[in-house]
Write a structure and sequence with these properties.
Radius of gyration: 17 Å
Distance between the termini: 22 Å
Order of helices and strands: EEEEHEEHHHEEEEEEHH
Oligomer: single chain
Structural class: alpha+beta
Number of domains: 1
Largest sheet: 6 strands, antiparallel
Helix content: 10-25%
Strand order of the largest sheet: 1-12-3-10-6-5
Length: 239
């Protein structure tokens, strides 16, 4: 079984990062502090108009959150990534990512000129900065998966949702296997529902491994018929 570490990067809290992840490579994200949050966008590298479709991913696999061994499906029903391992059984995929207005209201506005590396940026700003480096922009935003975050009903009359503090701790991880070449964009700013009044976004370790293609008994392939079909579509596109 192939599992060779290719390289690793420490992604600071409150920043963005992007990577071209090749088929049969895996990205392992490890929280470096409590209540880490990583908002993620995913695009097929061959054609970035094909991208992660969060509603279809959840609906097809009868889920309200992302967990192993689900596949992350494109708007064409193709598996872009598979969640091969995770220390947590819940990763939010329904509440979206934070905006600059939220950050300014909660923590006060800053600029790079005034705060330098302590500049407080929203996940939206971090994602867009990475997208623009690669010729993409606002029109290319889509619903995010928010790794390490759990959301629960607030039990109020409005049917609100609430952030679950303490769900993620230092050392928690999730591993994602690329089923086709994908362009992945990450932001490590606080989740918009996190009630913490202090700006202290946790950094995240990102390690990339060479791994084997999914075997016939792969957990994602066995999870649901829809998961299996998404892997078959990915394999056919790479043939």
């Amino acid at each position: 079984m192939t599992r060779d570490l290719l390289y690793g990067v420490q992604v600071p809290g409150g920043s963005g990062w992007s990577i071209l992840l090749r088929r049969q490579q895996a990205l392992r994200l490890t929280a470096q502090g409590p209540d880490a949050s990583v908002s993620m966008l995913v695009y097929a590298a061959a054609d970035t108009t094909e991208r992660l479709n969060v509603p279809d991913t959840l609906k097809a696999q009868m889920a309200a959150a992302v967990r192993a061994p689900m596949t992350l499906m494109s708007d064409m029903g193709k598996a872009l990534l598979s969640v091969t391992a995770s220390s947590l059984d819940w990763h939010d995929a329904i509440t979206g990512h934070g905006l600059d207005a939220d950050i300014a209201a909660r923590f006060g506005g800053t600029t790079y000129q005034s705060a330098r590396n302590e500049w407080r940026r929203s996940a939206r700003t971090c994602l867009l900065e990475e997208l623009r480096v690669h010729g993409l922009d606002n029109r290319d935003l889509h619903a995010t998966v928010n790794w390490f975050t759990k959301i629960a009903p607030a039990d109020d009359a409005a049917g609100s949702l609430r952030f679950v503090p303490g769900h993620a701790r230092e050392g928690d991880f999730v591993e994602l296997r690329a089923e086709v070449d994908v362009f992945v964009v990450l932001a490590t700013s606080p989740h918009p529902l996190n009630p913490d009044a202090q700006w202290r976004p946790a950094p995240v370790r990102a390690d990339v491994f060479a791994v084997d293609a999914p075997a016939a008994d792969d957990a994602a392939r066995q999870f649901r018929d829809e998961s299996s079909r998404s892997l078959v579509m990915a394999e056919r596109s790479c043939a």
